[in-house]
Structures are given as structure tokens and as C-alpha cells.
Hints:
Blueprint: E1 13-14, H1 17-27, E2 35-38, H2 46-53, E3 56-60, H3 63-70, E4 75-79, H4 87-93, E5 99-104, H5 110-118, E6 124-132, H6 133-139, H7 150-158, E7 159-167, E8 172-173, E9 180-187, H8 196-206, H9 218-224, H10 242-251
Helix pairs in contact: 5-7, 7-10, 8-10
Amino acid sequence: MKHIPRKRFGQHFLSDHGIIDAIVQAIAPQPGDPMVEIGPGLAALTQPLVERLGRLTVIELDRDLAARLRLHGQLDVIESDVLKVDFSQVAQALSAPKIRVVGNLPYNISTPILFHLLRYVDVIADQHFMLQKEVIDRMVAAPATSDYGRLSVMLQWRYAMENVLFVPPESFDPPPRVDSAVVRMVPRATPVALDSRLLEELVQVAFSQRRKILRHTLGRWLEARGFAGTFDVQRRAEEVPVHEFVALAASL
């Protein structure tokens, strides 16, 4: 029976075999790799992955698709909202110190998923995700560009990232109204140790009015915290490189 894509789950199924091959090549799965796929859908990417891996864990929210995936002998299906999944428990279940995570993420909740995974970065070896191209542009953006913002800072602090593949709308059924791309995210070996919630709050305040000079936003926030160090607030948030935001959060 044909599965009808569900709008509320943001379902767009990958159907271009050339693109699927290119994604699998970018991921480079090796036999026995402990891998988890988010949102396997109709298994377009799942099938070539599991053929190379031997076994694959998948996270699927749609119960009809989850039931269909359970019929596949080499898949371990977690039927759940990915935002409720504890990835350290998944790594434990796979008896792996670190897992590889892949997926065609639902575009309507891709940013919350990225922030959720940030909490489990210590058990993750690498991540390859298909996302809306403009989200990836923001993830990998350099300072002093219009795409540079909260997402750039929060993710670049913890990951080295690159846009590895462009994916046009016609590669999907139904085609989304946006361009897509695939990003590779590799956790940094020695990130600066800090409270991620503090960095998140700091960055959120800094970019809350991105056209304004920081003294109106971050400057007041730092004053309220009794910050005695030096930080140039005569700039806009988009002019501050990631390492300066990170150093500021660490000093607090």
C-alpha cells in the first residue's frame, strides 16, 4: 500500500537514486559501524546504509512507517519523537562509546533536533543530515555575513561543519518548496568547557536585536550579571567571532 506523505510530520521522501548514492558516499558507512538514522521514512537511504552496515537503528515517529520498518530483519526500530530520545542510552544499547547519526530531518523541527543532539555530543562520532539549504548556510556561516547568527555560534563551538552536497527539490516526492543540502558535523576533540545553557542565553541576548550595537542588549545583560572583564560591546552581534562568544561565556 502506498504511504501518503503526512504534512504534520513534514514528510518529503527522497527518490533520486543519484542523490541517494552521493549521500551514502559522503557518509561512508563501514560494516559494523554503530549508526542511528533519524526519520527513515520509506527507507530510501536506510536500505543502502543497512546493506553496507549489516545492522541499523532507526528512529521513526509515524506509526505506519514504523510498523513497515519492523518487517525488515536488520533494523532496530525506535518508535518515538526524536526530541524525546536519549542518545546516550541508544549508544549504551549499541555497546558503543560513540555512535554515528544520519538522517533526512523534518524541516519544520530541524533546529530543535540540532539543539537536542548538542546535549549528547560526547557520545557522537559524526552526524550527516539533509536539511533545508538555508539552515545549513546559517550553520556554517562566517562572522560579518547576514547568515551568521545564534545557530552558527552554538554549533560551531562544538562541531567542525561543512556543506557536502546540494540537493534540488525534484529529488523528493513530494518536492519541498526549498532547496536542500547535506551537512557533515564532526564534534571538536577539545572544545572549550563551559555551561552550554549560559552560552545559549548569552548568544540569544546578543542576537535578539541584531541591527543594534551590543551595548543595548548584551552590554546590559553583562552589567546585570556584574561582569568585570573586558568585552567590546561597540559592535553588532554578527561582527563577533565564535571564539569570542565562547571565551566570554567561559569567563562568566
